Amino acid sequence: MNMVQIIEKKKLGQALTAEEIGFFVKGAAKSEEDGGLPRYQLAALLMAIRLNGMDREETKLLTLAMTHSGDVVDLSSIPGIPVDKHSTGGVGDTTTLVLAPLVAACGVPVAKMSGRGLGHTGGTLDKLESIRGFDVSLSQERFLEQVRTIGCAVIGQTANLAPADKTLYALRDVTATVDSLPLIASSIVSKKLASGAQAIVLDVKTGAGALMHTTEDSIALAQTMVRIGCDAGRNMVALVTDMGEPLGSHVGNALEVKEAIDVLAGRTQGPLLTVALELGARMLVLGGAAKDVPEGKAKMEAALHSGAGLAKLKEMIIAQGGDPTCCEDVSALPQAPVVVPCPATENGYIAAMDTVGLGNAAQQMGAGRTTAEDVIDPAVGFVMQVRIGDRIAAGEPLAIVHARNEVSAREAVCAIQRCVQLTGVPVAPCKLIHAFVSSESVERL
Length: 445
Ligand code: URA
Ligand code: CA
Description:
The chain has helices at 3-11, 18-29, 39-52, 56-67, 95-105, 124-128, 140-150, 163-173, 181-194, 215-231, 253-264, 271-286, 293-305, 308-319, 325-328, 355-367, 406-419; strands at 83-87, 110-114, 152-156, 199-206, 235-242, 250-251, 338-343, 348-353, 381-384, 391-392, 397-403, 420-423, 433-437, 442-444. By secondary structure, it is an alpha+beta fold.
């Protein structure tokens, strides 16, 4: 097999064969020292794919080759149907911390491998690590044992999960080839397939803060991913949900854990709970614990109101070595020393938010990383006080900032003021759930 010919073929817009795709994926999974392909050839091929696309069959072949480029987790020792959930990434998106315990409390096992935050989006592992002692690096044996005994566990991805994706994603990041539908779909779905769940609910974000900015592009991404998952023999569906503004009001690691606990304790309602119930209801349907979405939602709500969801989170924290005090007393979570309001500079209605800018502001405060080696400050971030459509007067708070020091707090206040756009005329609130995508249909909601 000749890599130059493969690049040439894709340059001319022709479809690649299974052998050709298998060849370059193998070459990406291995380091160059270890006989892998030169990274400049892979980079050239990625640009050709970005410009000329891949058809449905090629995208499926690419995904399957990437799935099998490393370990595939075997969840067959877990009784019942383990269900996974994946978000394409957002700001203030803590649905996993609400969902995993609620779904497990309803009897469907959740064996979840999560990622860390990078850039403007938060990561579930970083959030969980703001709970004192919480261990996200359990062995496979302990991970499976925990799911068998208490019904849920959240850990980091094993080192050898879809290694071809690690190479290709890093190259895409520095060659302006992230924004390719077949490359995004194969990257996400290969990791989900390798994580072993039989049933998977995708939360495809749409809007200013998402990978895809329009509803139609987000639906197309959801359809591509769902088709691949179903072609691979898994039961996969997707919801397209809004990221035109942060989902929850809390942005920052310990702050997001606090919001998840507030939701599970019944103290907080709102968009985070709404999206968590929608996703969770679909997980219960795929997991065989509900006959339809309304029954799934009713079961999730019952687990919320009885306290079973919060009790399950507490069990999971204890099982993973964490201090569960925060479940009763959220002030046990790391607290930032400087807490100041971020005032609106004029009267008006909230017209739009620069969600990426807000995520970057939290990252600048220390809540996120610029490089994979950066150390996170779990306590910092901010709590939004407004949503799109709200009316506000000059001087009233847009957000409450939780900072490490005065300088950081001042910078965050300015950044948040820049990210929130005001107008003099009334604005409608954002729609939260845009579509449901299955292998058979697209339901616009
Ligand atoms: N997340 C991924 O894992 N891969 C992509 O390509 C984009 C987002
Ligand atoms: Ca996330």
